[in-house]
Amino acid sequence: MEKRVGVLTGGGDAPGLNAVIRAVVIKGEKLGYKIIGIKDGWRGILEKDVCELNVDKVEDIHREGGTILGTSRTNPYKVENGEQKVIENMKQLDLYALIAIGGDDTLGVANKLCKKGVKVVGVPKTIDNDLSATDICFGFDTAINRVAESIDRLHTTAESHHRVLVVEVMGRHAGWITLEGGMAGGAHVILIPEEPFDIDEVCRIIKGRKAKGKSYSIVAVAEGALPKGDTKFFAQEEGTDAFGHVKLGGVAKVLEKEIEKRTGAETRSVILGHLQRGGSPSAFDRYFATRLGLKAIQMVKDNEFGKMAALKKGELLSVSLEEAVGKMKAVSKELFGEAKVFFG
Ligand code: F6P
């Protein structure tokens, strides 16, 4: 009898999820496994909501955004007897092992389950690109391309109207999308969570541009960026999700008002939000996510449980889940220094 391996996608979706699923199914069948899709991340295991996958079902899905399995931020450790339920339901569903595709929240759950004997392999996913155990996460490349393209478009309208445009980008604690998307798009100021900003300095840069005859400016700001001395996020609403995250959003609007007041320049703001995550993955993300899927199912075959597929210095290898969820990858002062060369 062929062994049944479950695959789930948890947390915020990222372009490339379907490419991982496709690779797991196509190679999985060749290795003799039956791949079972688990719906909506950990929710599907808790509620035994699953579906059988086969090559026909996944043939072309690598070109599509989102995830055919659905996703959620369900945390089994916030559900009564959640851990026990996952373990029991895996037995009832006859699942030999699990491939969990997710960021630090999803992989954090995977890591805890591993310690209870569940056979789990992780695949790193987050458009935020903030997992330290891998050089890059799939989804990030598509996201920064979208940010750069959006900033390109903002240049023309900002210049025509002689305005300041503040563009808010995803990234709660890490500014990778803002840094790389902002530099690629040619933002004149970049504000990230790792480097608290000084609003006077931001306005000085904008006024300096005006003095040089540049009638417009683009400010790229991460949703988690904070003014110096402040520790409270610009949260959209009260409350948190099952992993304790507040819903962010609004720093661009605050900056819009402050910049207009302090510089006298007409200012507008735009929040890119989920446009950064939706839609078809870039060629890089399709290819990279495919390779991660191939690696993950090979890790199942090789009994490499409690580990995550990762890219390090160009090589695809496995790292422990403990290491994967242990530390966030932040933008260094050196890299931010490179961005600052172009401020103004
Ligand atoms: O998962 C990462 C992320 O894209 C963050 O950058 C962002 O803050 C969050 O997801 C948004 O989550 P949601 O889809 O729940 O609004």
Q: Could you name the CATH topology of the largest domain?
A: Rossmann fold
Q: Give the topology string: H per helix, E per strand.
A: EHEHEHHEHEHEHEHEEEHEHEEHH
Structural category: alpha/beta
CATH class of the largest domain: Alpha Beta
Distance between the terminal alpha carbons, to the nearest Å? 65 Å
CATH architecture of the largest domain: 3-Layer(aba) Sandwich
Low-confidence stretches: none
Number of domains: 2
Strand content: 15-25%
Mean of pLDDT: 95
In which range does the helix fraction lie? 25-40%
For the largest sheet, list the strands in their spatial order.
Answer: 3-2-1-4-5-12-13
What spatial form do the alpha-carbon principal axes imply?
elongated
Sequence-ordered SSE layout with sheet pairings:
Layout: E1 4-9, H1 17-30, E2 34-38, H2 42-46, E3 50-52, H3 55-58, H4 82-92, E4 95-102, H5 104-115, E5 120-124, H6 140-161, E6 164-169, H7 176-185, E7 189-191, H8 199-211, E8 217-222, E9 235-240, E10 246-248, H9 251-263, E11 267-271, H10 283-301, E12 307-312, E13 315-320, H11 321-326, H12 333-340
Parallel strand pairs: 1-2, 1-4, 4-5, 5-12, 6-8, 6-11, 7-8
Antiparallel strand pairs: 2-3, 9-10, 12-13
Helix pairs in contact: 1-10, 6-7, 8-9
The chain binds 6-O-phosphono-beta-D-fructofuranose.
